[in-house]
Design goal:
The chain contains 10 helices and 9 strands. By secondary structure, the chain is of the alpha/beta class. Strands 1-2-3-4-5-6-7-9 form an 8-stranded parallel barrel, surrounded by 6 helices. α6 crosses α7 and α8 packs across α9. The longest helix has 18 residues. The protein is globular and about 45 Å long.
Length: 337
């Protein structure tokens, strides 16, 4: 894993819009994020959102975008993990190598690591085929090929070799999973010192699992409220760092001050970049792209175009050299990077 001083800055954003019907608004926001050159967008699987689950929504976003990475949240608590694995692999094929997998570790006590090492598939997703208990459309309803009650048939290896694994570091268990398996780790911090502490703990634990330096990216995840436009950040925000809240660290201020914060933390080497969660999705993402990202691009700190076509290329991650994990396969060190 790495937080590389002076390395390429990575930016990602959440598309979450509780209560938003259909997929049109998600397509619009994903295209906006793509215009800003962001590495990837995430989408949680919220029961408050009618219609398709996160994986189903991003399967429809995929053909409407060209470069940006697409990372739905799926859970490892699903009873049919192979079906979920196949669904994420299908998103990778639909997007031509731009899929990721944000791992929701599910119920407490669920042993993600144990299942993988024992030769079972890499996690699972809630409702990635067929219909959920409430008749909610799921991934299989959009693409066909749902596999109720059985393993998915053999399929070509995904374009990336394996979709990118993203893990939220919200507790010690999640930190262990991230250190061992994550391609991208999302950490919470309100100061550069706190971010550096999270980075150091992850790097130390990753080293104990035999992870090589540079095998993953560490992003600070922040809620952002850019409703104040170009006004200075409120006390406790901006240069002084985000403010802790019940939902996680919150930055409230303007896009210029947010750019200053991102540049300063990245220059200090405490993280490889940021995962930004807009409080008001449409307003804040627009200001993030047209204000914050544009300023970072102007300063030469962030890309102005995508030099590659896959999410792994955006993140500077190597393509796995082993075959895509299937039933009965045992993960090796190279599977974990």
């Amino acid at each position: 894993m790495s937080a590389r001083y002076g390395g390429l800055l990575h930016l990602a954003a959440a598309l979450d819009q509780p209560g938003a019907p259909g997929t049109e608004s998600f397509v619009e926001l994903a295209r906006l994020a793509e215009r800003g050159g962001l590495d990837f967008v995430t989408l949680d699987d919220s029961a408050a959102r009618p219609g398709a689950d996160a994986l189903g929504v991003l399967c429809r976003v995929a053909p409407a975008t060209r470069r940006i990475g697409l990372v739905p949240t799926v859970t490892t608590a699903d009873p049919e993990p192979l079906r979920a694995q196949g669904a994420v692999a299908t998103l990778d094929r639909l997007s031509r190598g731009r899929a990721g997998w944000r791992l929701d570790l599910g119920a407490p006590g669920r042993s993600f690591e144990g299942e993988a090492v024992q030769g079972r598939s890499f996690g699972g997703a809630a409702g990635t085929g067929g219909l959920s208990g409430g008749g909610r459309p799921r991934w299989g309803d959009f693409t066909g090929g749902a596999f109720p009650g059985q393993d998915p048939p053999a399929a070509p290896r995904p374009p990336q070799g394996r979709p990118v694994h993203v893990v939220d570091v919200t507790d010690d268990h999640a930190r262990t999973v991230a250190a061992r398996y994550a391609d991208v780790a999302l950490v919470r911090a309100t100061t550069p010192v706190q971010a550096a502490g999270e980075r150091d703990r992850l790097l130390e634990q990753a080293g104990s699992f035999g992870r090589r330096p540079g095998s993953a990216r560490i992003l600070v995840s922040l809620l952002v409220d850019l409703g104040d436009g170009e006004r200075a950040a409120q006390p406790g925000h901006g240069g002084g760092g985000p403010r802790p809240t019940g939902r996680g660290p919150l930055y409230r201020g303007g896009p210029v001050d947010l750019a200053e914060l991102i540049a300063a933390w990245h220059a200090a080497g405490v993280a490889d970049g940021f995962h930004l969660v807009p409080v008001e999705p449409r307003r804040d993402l627009e200001r993030l792209v047209n204000g914050t990202a544009a300023l970072l691009q102007h300063r030469g700190l962030f890309r102005t175009f995508y030099p590659g076509s896959t999410l792994r290329e955006h993140l500077g991650l190597p393509r796995p050299v082993t075959p895509y994990a299937t039933s009965g396969a045992t993960l090796t060190t190279t599977d974990r990077i």
